[in-house]
Amino acid sequence: MPVLRYAEVRVGYRGHPVLTGVDLQVAAGERLVLVGPNGAGKSTLIKSVVGLADVLGGTAAVPDREQCGYVPQVGELDASFPVTALQVVLMGRYRRIGWWRPTRAADRRAAREALDRVGLSDEAGRQFGVLSGGQRQRVLLARALAAEPRLLLLDEPFNGIDVVSQESILGVLRAVTAAGTALVLSTHDLALARDLADVVCLVNGRQWAAGPPGVTLTADTLSRAYGGQAIDLANGRTVLVEP
Q1: 99 has a pLDDT exceeding 60
Q2: End-to-end alpha carbon distance in the chain
Q3: What pLDDT sits at residue 162?
Q4: Which of 187, 178, 185 lies closest to 159 in space, CA to CA?
Q5: pLDDT tens for residues 16-54?
């Protein structure tokens, strides 16, 4: 049984579609990577799963929001808000305990364990806003993990972060999917998509292709989706030449 299934779905905002013709499904432990240029609809697709964008048509079967862990782009969270890293991670438990109820020892323990998983247990008491961009992204991942989700959604998690944070996040993602959590992640990085994905969904205004990376990330499909020239290199990487 798929954790997430979209059939001929259109997504957008206030009745205006951003992305059409979406046909995909994600099973437990499966890693789906969304690839496409800026403005292609990747973020809108991810936000539609958690109710931050609208499903305008088609059939969408999604988990309860309590079963989803969402990691937005790091710039979407106000870094000036006076909260510690641990307090941010505890927000991932609020749907379980209710916003109006105090956190329990079990919730605080789950939050600390999530911070430890992303390698930031020593930063629990630091203000979120003073952390580096990569550290903030790892804190947001820990917040999602603290919810113990069936489905983990990450929107461009590697934009502008350091190599250490990227490797830390990738290690965590491989571990949680091996344990059965489904993953949907968006990226511009074709090499990363080839390496991480079980399934790649190529989008740009509509879905152009979906399948294993070797089938989806071909020069012909990429050139049609991006509207430019795609060149296959001998090492398995692909270069896109924008028009």
Answers
A1: no
A2: 41
A3: 86
A4: 187
A5: 999 999 999 999 999 999 999 889 999 999 999 999 999
Q: Residues 6 or more apart from 111 whose CB is under 8 A from it? A: 86, 89, 90, 92, 93, 142, 146
Nearest CA to 23 among 39, 41, 6?
6
Mean pLDDT of 53-75: 91
CA distances from residue 97 to 63, 69, 85, 139 in whole angstroms, order as listed: 19, 16, 19, 20
pTM value is 0.90
Residue 92 has which token pair? 């991932």
Burial class (CB in 10 A: 0-12, 13-18, 19+), 109: exposed
1-63+188-243: which CATH architecture?
3-Layer(aba) Sandwich (3.40)
User: Where do the domains of the chain lie?
Assistant: 1-63+188-243
Count helices and strands (H / E) in the chain: 9, 11
CA atoms of 142 and 155, how far apart (whole Å) = 15
Q: Which residues contact 10 (CB under 8 A, 6 or more apart)?
A: 17, 19, 20, 21, 22, 55, 56, 57, 58
* Token output for 97: 């305990």
